[in-house]
Design a protein that fits this description.
Helices cover 59% and strands 10% of the residues. It has 6 helices and 4 strands, in the order E-E-H-H-H-H-H-E-E-H. It binds a DNA duplex through helix 1 and helix 5.
Length: 216
DNA sequence: TTGTGTTTTACGACCTCC
DNA sequence: GGAGGTCGTAAAACACAA
């Protein structure tokens, strides 16, 4: 059993001490954290913090030292973790039961669950963030690939436009008075057939230029 | 040993639900 | 209105590098 020496007094440092510590705490505070001020105006009152001074001798300071928070034992934490794994919320009866089994104040059990839920929530948020980041990175990568393809296709399109313009100019030079409804030319030894389809809606600029070139 | 960063315990303020 | 929740934070406990 650990001991805490305060002045001439030796205080046992055990689970029971932790239990007592909470009772003292509530008495000293003269308040419960669950007092619930409802919708009163927000008045942030800084609570008194416990002193770090261990050389104190008067009753209040001794109590303050007794109030020092104590780490829960591994066994207590394991039991609390197990309980938390079964159910993250803590109804009154269960809290009393756990507190009794572990020799803790019910308030300690409630606080532990509150903090545990907060840690769990933080972890969940971090996991969700990592998942979303991964998805985002995947989308960004896909976007880069698509942009690269767009550049490549734009370049190809530009080259094709140039080819067509050159051919158009050549055809213009060879043009006769009677327009033909179709014509056939070769580009790079590959035959390309053009067919005039008046009802087709060509709204791509270079096609319009091409037709304009043919039928000026 | 000591300075510093992180984790754990505890609390005050406020919110929600019954 | 009370019980129990979240949120933000203080302070003790702990880990660890320098």
């Amino acid at each position: 059993m650990d001991q805490m020496v305060i002045g001439s007094q030796v205080y046992p440092y055990t689970v029971q001490t932790q239990h007592s510590h909470c009772i003292i705490m509530n008495q000293i505070d003269g308040s419960s954290s669950l007092s619930g001020e409802g919708s009163k105006p927000v008045v942030k009152r800084r609570r008194k913090r416990r002193s770090k001074d261990s050389s104190a001798t008067n009753d209040d300071d001794v109590a303050g030292i007794m109030l020092r928070k104590r780490k829960l034992t591994d066994e207590q934490v394991n039991m609390l973790e197990y309980s938390f794994g079964n159910e993250r919320k803590l109804e009154s009866g269960r809290k009393e039961k756990i507190a009794g089994e572990l020799g803790l104040d019910p308030r300690q059990v409630a606080v532990w669950f509150q903090n545990r839920r907060a840690r769990w929530k933080t972890k969940k948020i971090e996991e969700e963030y990592a998942k979303l980041k991964s998805q985002h990175d995947t989308v960004v990568l896909g976007q880069c690939q698509l942009e690269s393809q767009v550049l490549e296709l734009t370049e190809q399109l530009s080259q094709a436009q140039n080819e067509i313009r050159k051919l158009s100019e050549r055809l213009e030079g060879m043009s006769t008075n009677s327009p033909s409804s179709s014509l056939s030319i070769e580009v790079n030894d590959a035959p390309i057939d053009f067919e005039f389809v008046p009802e087709t809606n060509y709204n791509i600029p270079f096609y319009m230029e091409y037709w304009d070139g043919l039928y000026v």
